[in-house]
Amino acid sequence: xxxxxxxxxxxxxxxxxxxxAAHRRREPDYRQRCDDLKxxxxxxxxxxxxxxxxxxxxxxxxxxxxxxxxxxxxxxKEIDHLLGHLARWMRPERRPVDPLFLPAWAEVRFRPLGxxxxxxxWNYPVNLALMPLATALAAGNHVYLKPSEHTPRTSAFLRDLxxxxxxxxxxxxxxxxxxxxxxxxxxPLDHLLFTGSTSVGRKVMAAAAPNLTPVTLELGGKSPAIxxxxxxxxxxxxxxxxxxxxxxxxxxxxxxxxxxxxxxxDDFVEALHRDVAARYPTLDDNPDYTxxxxxxxxxxxxxxxxxxxxxxxxxxxxxxxxxxxxxxERIIPPTVVIDPAEDTAIMRDEIFGPILPVKSYADIDQAxxxxxxxxxxxxxxxxxxxxxxxxxxxxxxxAGGVTINDTVLHIAQPSLPFGGVGPSGMGHYHGRxxxxxxxxxxxxxxxxxxxxxxxxxxxYGKLADWLVRFLTR
Length: 473
Prior knowledge:
This protein is of the alpha/beta class. It folds into two domains: 3-219 and 423-443, Aldehyde Dehydrogenase, Chain A, domain 1; 223-419, Aldehyde Dehydrogenase, Chain A, domain 2. It is built from 17 helices and 16 strands. It has helices at residues 3-25, 30-44, 48-59, 64-90, 127-138, 152-165, 178-185, 198-208, 233-245, 265-279, 295-310, 323-329, 345-348, 364-372, 387-396, 431-437, 462-471; strands at 93-95, 105-112, 115-119, 142-146, 171-173, 191-195, 215-218, 223-227, 255-261, 315-317, 335-338, 355-361, 379-383, 401-404, 425-426, 439-446. The strands form three sheets. It has a seven-stranded mixed sheet with strand order 10-11-12-9-8-13-14, sandwiched between helices.
């Protein structure tokens, strides 16, 4: 670690120590946890308009309705779910004891870990900060949050919101750039949750390793949508458009590419074009279409399109926009690229924008093989009415989560775990799985007044010989 990084770590450490010391003095009980969640909800709800304005300022423009739904409603619903189930989740679970050890009994208790670190990303900067934060609080922890430096106004909003709700030794916020985030990942936290790219996730895991800090990584990758032969193309187009062009594609579980039967490829593109034209007749002054969050992201996406055109692939913009305005305001229109090759950047990288490659396949096994030949995705979408084929896809692929006949909606179900697999992430949160992630499932064995094991002790004799023969029979 260089001198600057060591200095940042030294600056962050006193806040962590204060959080941990406060947790050791008074671990939040059920009443405190519920009170924390209720006060967070009560403070957050009246500030939804302020939140949307902050995010719009950070993005250049962000759809107000999408901000209120994806970063507002989701957080409120998650808090409500936590409050509705917390008492049951906290209750110790009785577990059976091997008959050999009766009349002893056993249980599992769910104990808070201590201080949870959260590194949140820029694409849904409130949702992906407050949802894990609320879950960590429900599990009885204190929280140290590092929001994204790429959305500074939203990060300041989060800092002010949380400072109004919690004392600094229960929830603290660290602001700063990537150097602060790197130092933050190196803190000796009791658990660290990171949401972001796979490449940065590797660095976070490496930074956490010297402290053996457990990590949950919510990453990304290329999430496929497979359209089954015979499925309604207009319906598939509408539902793929809804998931892909939400937040202008800046969504970790957005469909990254579509696999469609070769004979239906052009009809699907036409159906998608019609659907997008109805959603976004123009992108000039359109309040419902979000801009690209930063100049770097905009240039990256433009580079994908430039390369595809240079290599002769068909690139179709699905909505009109004034080119000068697009350049000045970082607007990338919904765009499809037809059958790009594997060595194009658009097929190597996670796109994270409103560009959708459409690739042909001959039969469902070829589509499955294509998915399985690549890193396991964070999400998979299959559109089909053939139940046998649906089961075939589910039984021969592996993804972080799946939605059948729609996109992204599995993440909105608080009863389902959310998390990736391999390069798309590790660990889960949301709902009960989040409570378990931020808890230690502590095994407890209660010995009875009389112990059968008291019969098995030195000096070993005939009784011990019989017990060994009986137990190893």
